[in-house]
Every structure is written in C-alpha cells, then in structure tokens.
Specification:
Layout (H helix, E strand, L loop, with lengths): L10 E8 L5 E8 L5 E7 L6 E3 L5 E3 L2 H11 L7 H17 L4 E3 H15 L1 H11 L5 H17 L2
Parallel strand pairs: 4-6
Antiparallel strand pairs: 1-2, 2-3, 4-5
Length: 155
C-alpha cells in the first residue's frame, strides 16, 4: 500500500475494524518512511455482473438503480428508508448468490416485486404498474385481483 504523502510502499497497520455495514475492513496505517497516518479500506472483490436489458443491450449491474425504483414505489408510503435499503441489499445478495455472470432486467424486476409484495402492497402495485407496463385498466385490475386473491387465501 503506497503512502499518499511520500509514496513509500512500507507501512504498518495500527488499527483494523469492520465498517458499520460490515462490507469492508477499515485499516488505519502508519507510513514507515514519513510517519504520517492514513486510512485504507479492504473490500471483497465482487464478480462483475452484466445486466441484459429488454432491448438486448448490456450494462454493468448497479444497485442504485434498484434503489431509485424502490424509492419511487415507496414514495409517501409508511416504508422506512432502512427497510428500502434492506430490500435492495436482499435483492442484490440474491443476484450475487446466483453466481450468474449475466442477469436480465426481467429477473431483477421479479425479485424486486417479490420483496416489495411482502413489504408494502401499494408500493408493489406501483412498481408492478411501471415494470410490467400495464397497457390498460384491465391488465392492472387482473394484477390487483391476483393480489387480493393471495391476501384472502392468506387469512
């Protein structure tokens, strides 16, 4: 690890601790050459996942896009930011645990809807209406009837 002050590659670790979310290790280091201290972070190297969009184009997976859609669906709903972030983390974990190098936006949308349905039904319907691109009121009503049927059978 190069010192950011003198560019020496010799340093010693003074303190190590996990980050608040537990996804990385924060290391406090001291340069052997100049004695200055600096912080480094160690993260698990993630396998890059490519998202295949509906039009066939490909792009790198970005969980912030999922969060943006979830935030929009949960707007003005009693769903905490922490619950929204946890949903995105759960979906992201499922995607990475599949060990697939590519995933379709269709699969991602289905995962998000599965988790949203359990979190908030109104947010689920909002997300589904955009994601499934309901063409008319009939397809929207079919989805609501399915949701209502599941709610009644669960009672």
């Amino acid at each position: 690890m190069k010192c950011r002050y003198c560019l020496s590659t010799e340093s010693k670790v003074i303190d190590s601790r996990p980050t608040e979310d537990g996804t990385a290790i924060r290391r406090r280091r001291e340069c052997i050459s100049c004695g200055k201290r600096f912080t480094t972070y160690e993260k698990i190297e993630e396998i890059p996942i490519t998202v295949v969009k509906r039009d066939g184009t490909r792009q790198a997976f970005d969980s912030t896009k999922i969060l943006a859609g979830v935030k929009k669906a949960c707007e003005k709903r009693p769903v905490s930011v922490a619950a929204q972030n946890e949903l995105v983390d759960d979906v992201t974990r499922e995607i990475f645990n599949s060990f697939e190098e590519e995933i379709t936006t269709i699969r991602i949308g289905e995962l998000v809807m599965k988790h949203l349905k359990a979190l908030d039904e109104v947010a689920y319907v909002r997300f589904a209406s955009v994601y499934r691109s309901f063409k008319d009121i009939n397809t929207f009503m079919e989805e609501l009837k399915t949701l209502l049927g599941e709610a009644e059978s669960g009672k």
